[in-house]
Design goal:
The protein is an alpha/beta fold. 22% of the residues lie in helices and 29% in strands. The chain has 6 helices and 17 strands. Helix 5 links the parallel strand 10 and strand 11. The longest helix is centred in the first third of the chain and has 13 residues. 30% of the residues are buried.
């Protein structure tokens, strides 16, 4: 039996381990476009310098050898033929399977704000590549705008506190972490963050990204007509499932 798992995040890794515990003789292959195993929940620790890439790994040392799992890393699944039971890979190879588990995860969603999807320096915080790019760009700019004050937005904020940048958090709701905190608890955090120099814009909506002649952000225009200066935008406005490779698969 050949099991193939698409995706090396928490679900894919735990599925591979569980398969091996239940089937000692099966061939288990894990395919991922990532070249590292890492926890998305602590990417802000990489941003703030507390952890290097290797310290984001949540698996035991020598995990793949320990569980006899073949890892095809740095390769993306771009198609699937369910009749022939084959995956089409970005390296122009096909990979056959008896059973396949799709654990491809999600990508950051960019809302339909004018220029947001086409401007430079607009980044989500969903994967390691995002965190690496944010870390690089944050050293070059003076103003950062974060869209969304949910868990990911607050993680991005926490990871950037020690950078020499002005941070503005823009949120349509009336507080940070509206699904997790009541008004009192949110206010405690907000006051502490204001002491760190963070600017909050609550109860507003971003309507347009103002860009320069090189398509780099200059500011975000809000529905109040106010413009928030920013050369880097971190969009923490939800996710969408990675299902593009399933097109035409039936």
């Amino acid at each position: 039996m050949a099991y193939v798992i698409v995706g090396a995040s928490a679900s894919g890794i735990n599925a591979a381990r569980t398969l091996r515990e239940n089937d000692k003789n099966a061939e288990i292959i894990l395919v991922s476009k990532d070249e590292y195993v890492y926890s998305r929940c602590i990417l802000h620790h990489f941003l703030d310098g507390r952890r290097e890439i290797e310290a984001l790994d949540f698996t035991p040392k020598n995990f793949f050898e320990m569980y006899n799992i073949k890892w095809i890393k740095g390769v993306e699944v771009i198609g699937i033929d369910v009749k022939e039971k084959k995956l089409k890979l970005s390296n122009n190879e096909d990979l056959s399977y008896d059973k396949v588990l799709l654990a491809a995860g999600s990508s950051s969603f960019l809302p339909p704000i004018e220029n947001l999807r086409t401007a430079n320096n607009v980044i989500g915080l969903r994967n390691l590549d995002d965190a690496i790019k944010i870390k690089e760009e944050a050293k070059k700019v003076k103003n950062v705008a974060i869209l969304g004050a949910g868990l990911v937005g607050v993680d991005a904020l926490a990871g950037l506190l020690d950078y020499d940048v002005n941070i503005t958090l823009i949120e349509m709701g009336d507080r940070i972490l509206p699904l997790q905190l009541d008004n009192y608890a949110a206010e405690v955090y907000q006051e502490r963050l204001k002491e760190e120099g963070v600017n909050f814009k609550f109860g507003v909506r971003a309507e347009k990204v103002i860009v320069d002649d090189n398509n780099n952000p200059i500011s975000i225009k809000l529905n109040t007509e106010e413009e928030v200066p920013c050369e880097l935008i971190i969009a923490c406005t939800g996710v969408r499932a990675n299902i593009g490779f399933l097109n035409d698969s039936g």
